[in-house]
Amino acid sequence: MLALAWMTGYLVQERRKHAETVRVQTAVQALTAEWLRIARELHDMVAHSIGIIAIQAGMGRRVIERSCRPVCATRCGPFRHAAEGAM
Description:
By secondary structure, the chain is mostly helical.
């Protein structure tokens, strides 16, 4: 009878340990998934912003070239190239 009581107590303790381990693993997986989601969103925002910079620099250069200021237009080139390179 004593052995049965001990075995029951031992099994209950093991189930609790296992349940705690599963709970911790689930929490870690949820946290990791959230970090990955935030990283993807941040990456998308930065890439979008750099794309806008590249487009604006390219259009700025064209506008300046058409307004007869080719010397000023050459100054827009590095911005466009840097933004395109970052993408």
